[in-house]
Structures are given as structure tokens and as C-alpha cells.
Amino acid sequence: MNLELLLKNIDCLEVKGEPSQKITSVEFDSRKVAPGAVFIAQRGLHADGHRFIPAAIKSGAVAVVCEEYPVPEPSGVALVKVENGMKAVGQIASAFYGFPSRKMKVVGVTGTNGKTSIATLLFRLFRELGYNVGLISTISYRINEIEETASQTTPDALKIQQLMAKMADAGCEFCFMEVSSHAAHQHRIAGIEFAGGIFTNITHDHLDYHKTFAEYIKAKQLFFNALSESAFALTNIDDKNGLIMVQNSKARKITYSNRAMADFRCKVLETHFNGMLLSIEGKEVWTRFVGNFNASNLLAVYAAAVNLGQDSGEVLTRISNLEPVKGRFQTIRSEDGKMAIVDYAHTPDALKNVLKAIDGIRTGNEQVITVVGAGGDRDKTKRPEMAQEAILGSDKVVLTSDNPRTEDPAQIVKDMEAGVEPQWKNKVVSIVNRHEAIKTAVLLSRPGDIILIAGKGHENYQDVNGVKHHFDDVEEVKKCFGIED
Ligand SMILES: CC(=O)N[C@H]1[C@@H](OP(=O)(O)OP(=O)(O)OC[C@H]2O[C@@H](n3ccc(=O)[nH]c3=O)[C@H](O)[C@@H]2O)O[C@H](CO)[C@@H](O)[C@@H]1O[C@H](C)C(=O)N[C@@H](C)C(=O)N[C@H](CCC(=O)O)C(=O)O
Ligand SMILES: Nc1ncnc2c1ncn2[C@@H]1O[C@H](COP(=O)(O)OP(=O)(O)OP(=O)(O)O)[C@@H](O)[C@H]1O
Ligand SMILES: N[C@H](CCC[C@H](N)C(=O)O)C(=O)O
Ligand SMILES: [Mg+2]
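Above: the input record for the complex with magnesium ion. Below: its predicted structure, written as C-alpha cells.
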């Protein structure tokens, strides 16, 4: 593709050099540049991409997009000046791949918790409705039945456009994707034309990156602020920031709620261990999900589907057949009547919600034993809060490791212990080794008890110093229960 054509829809300040250069690929990482590439320099957290312009040219880049021209200015390559290198990646990649998001309806889901659940359920629902569909989520990137394990919740802008181009080629009419706050802040979603956005909730997480809660809210607002007038912005008004999230959006605002007056409403009529009876828009529907937060997620799925033009009756019927997402309230029963729940709750709010859901279905005679850790190289302030939530909702708690990454796992457990008040000490035991922690929880349990294993959900590894060691909570608990696969 010709450089001039590529730059047509992009906010560029100036172009120097040959504009009719033929471009054969787009890269923002100098290590991946091949002859014929356009290299886009972006300023990151650890490095400044501008430093790698000479390396990119040496590897054959024929054009360079940057915020500042290199000194001395190289000859023989086109130089394009932009205000924001991060934004330019999405805009240029989108043009390079033929604006794939215009060829389908893309819906983004943002919020602290519930993104994977909603995006995945929308994907499954629309598959059931007979469409070709794409999915970009924490667990996997999917194009109909073709699945690739995900490396990030929302990958970099180039990868997103490459995935969307493949989706468009496969005839996808819809794409459901998670929009993490990191992605919104780093403009990974630049160049995507969204048909709609969904907000779930915002609670304590990622303050290591955003520093303050206000900045975290602002990052998520960026997504809604960029939606066009023709898009919808579906927001959960049970969250106190639900309306604030969409206040500066040009999109059509739609609200949903389990508690208040809203455009879409839902009520939990009955809760059992294997599901809930809901009333959605006054119609009763049996679902295989547990917990008020899941009622909220299913309502968002319903409201989005209806706003995407689907028949409401058909959508409700399909919703009753949907199954929970892997590692989200996944239950495993032992032969002697113990029940384990593997769940991806890795924030204080998620933990509180899951334990509340368990509380709503327990008889009161059994013990609830929770195994939980907190991630290394992530928000440290959530550690004591997670320990507190676990204790408040459980009879016994085992504090353990969850992806220590480059931190000392024993120190992370100590940080969690800081949330344990003296009167709770006899409820809590710390076992850094997660395998031993799960084994201990099972040993402490009696028939009828509920063991919540929180934080890792679908993950099948323990990340220690950048090395991912195989570890799977479901496998671990099955071994302890003597269940063979
Ligand atoms: C904290 C964070 O988000 N970091 C992301 C960021 O990295 P960075 O700012 O450190 O990049 P950098 O190393 O400073 O490099 C700057 C630039 O120089 C370039 N470079 C660098 C070296 C070189 O030799 N040549 C070169 O050209 C790089 O390609 C880059 O363009 O930009 C990179 C490229 O897009 C991302 O891969 C990287 O994600 C890292 C791997 C990460 O772990 N991110 C996590 C925290 C994350 O994104 N999580 C969210 C939310 C999860 C959730 O709660 O759901 C997610 O969406 O997954
Ligand atoms: N609507 C919700 N409100 C609060 N908690 C929820 C909600 N939905 C799910 N959860 C809890 O959060 C956990 C993670 O859910 P999910 O994977 O859908 O969230 P996510 O937003 O994709 O998380 P991540 O930021 O890691 O991508 C679940 O296992 C459950 O414990
Ligand atoms: N997307 C989240 C996932 C956290 C999952 C938990 N198991 C952990 O490693 O902290 C993050 O990267 O913060
Ligand atoms: Mg997710």
C-alpha cells in the first residue's frame, strides 16, 4: 500500500520525503521490522520508541512515524510527524488492513469486573443465533471456532487490527471485545469504529498503573468519549459511577439495573446452586448462573443483543441455554459431598460478590473455606482488602500465592496479612505454596462444606519471575477430591 493513501485518514502534522513509498507492513517494535515497513515510534513506560528509529531503518523501514524527528534526519526514508505515536499505531494499522471494524459491528466491554463474562456470553449468544462472530478477551481471541490463547485482555493496536481483518475475511458480522483501562489509556483501541460500548462497574484495581481512582475512572471514560453518535453506550446504573462514565459520550445512552428504574431491568426471583430464576423485562427466564453480579452481566448481554437488532424473545430463550465461562464460579463436587468453586475473583469487590453469592445459596450449617492470593507486580493496596473480604465472607481462609511475578511471594502474603485484624487471626492460615494451600483447605473441609478457590479462574500457570509454571486450580482440587479426568 502507498504511504500517501495510508496517511489519508490519520491526524498527521507533517510529512517529509517520498509520500508515494510502497508500504508492506506496519510495526511499532524495531525488533520486528522487515524491509518495506513503516515504523511507528511510541513512548512507552520503560523505553522511548524514538530511540529505536535507527535500528528500524537499518532493518529496512522505508517510512518512520514519530512525534519528534530524529537527529540527524535520515535520508532515503519518509518521515511523518504525529502528535501521539500510540494513537498513530491503531489509526495506521486500521487503514493498512482496510478498516476492518467498519465491516462488522464491534462492541467493547469495559469495567473492573465482568468484561470477560459479558464479551464471551455475547460471543456465544450470537454464535447460537447463527452469526459469524469474533471475540477478543482475557481467555482467548476467537474467530468462530478458531481459537488462539490470549496474551493480554486487550492486545496492542496492531494485533487488534490484524485480528479484526481476519474476522472480516471470515465474514464476521459482530466482534465482542474487552477494553481494559490500560488499553484505553494507551490508545490500543484507536482506529476501531465501535457500534457500542458496555460499562459493568468500577472498583478498586490497577492503582499501581493509574495511581488514583479518579485517573482510573478517566481512563475508562476515554473509551465512551470516543464513541460516535451512531453507537450505543450501555451503562450499569447500579454502579455509582455508571452515569459519570458516559456523561461526555456522544453515543446513545442506555441504562440497565437490577435495583432501580432503567431502560433495561432485571430481578432475581430464585437462587439455587445450579442457577437462578430471573425476571428480565418482566419475562421469567431460568439461567445456569449464580449471584446478583451474574444477573447484572446477563442483563447487559440481553440489552446489548436487543440494541444490536436481535429479537428479544429469541435472545431470552438462548440466554437460558448459556453456560458459565471457564473459571467463573466453576463448581467441582467430591464424592463425599464437598463442593469446590474455582473463580477468577482477583479484586476485593469480585471476592465480596462471589462470597455474597455463596452466602445466598448456603444452608448455614456448612463451612465456607476460601483460598486466595494476590498478584505480584500489581496494585499492592488491594492485598489487605482482599484478605479482609475473604475473612468477612468465610469461616476459614487460607492466604497463598497468585502469580508472584518478580516479587517475593512470602512478602505478598505478608501484605495480605496486614488486613487481618487480631480477632480474626484464628480463622486464617498462610501457606505460600498454592498446591499445599488447596490441599490444606480440602483437609480442613467436611462433607457439605464449600471451598472457594479464588483469583486464577481459567489460568493454567503460576508466573514466577517471568516463567509460567503449569498450575491449574481445577486440576489441583480434582486431585485432592480423588477425581480422575
Ligand atoms: C504496563 C503496560 O501496559 N505495558 C504495555 C506497554 O509496554 P511499555 O510501555 O513498557 O513499552 P516499552 O518497553 O516502554 O517500549 C516502548 C516502545 O518501544 C518499542 N521498542 C522497545 C524495544 C526495542 O528494542 N525496540 C522497540 O521498538 C516497543 O515496541 C514500544 O512500542 O506497551 C506494550 C506494547 O503495546 C505492551 O505489551 C505492554 O503490556 C505489558 C506486557 C503488560 O503486562 N500489560 C498489562 C499490565 C496489561 O496491559 N493489562 C491489561 C489489563 C488486564 C485486566 O485487568 O484485564 C490488558 O489489557 O491485558
Ligand atoms: N458484574 C460483575 N460485578 C462484580 N464482580 C463480577 C462481575 N462479573 C464477574 N465478577 C467477578 O469477577 C471475576 C472476573 O470476572 P471476569 O473475568 O468476567 O472479569 P474481567 O473484567 O474480564 O476481569 P479482567 O480485568 O481480569 O479481564 C469473576 O470470576 C467474578 O468473581
Ligand atoms: N488482568 C489481571 C488479571 C489478574 C489475575 C490474577 N491471577 C493475578 O495474576 O493477579 C491483571 O493482570 O492484573
Ligand atoms: Mg477479562
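Notes for the reader.
Residues 111, 113-117, 138, 153, 178, 200-201, 293, 296-297, 328, 343-345, 349-350, 353-354, 457 surround adenosine-5'-triphosphate (ligand 2) (CB under 6 Å).
The chain has a mean pLDDT of 95.
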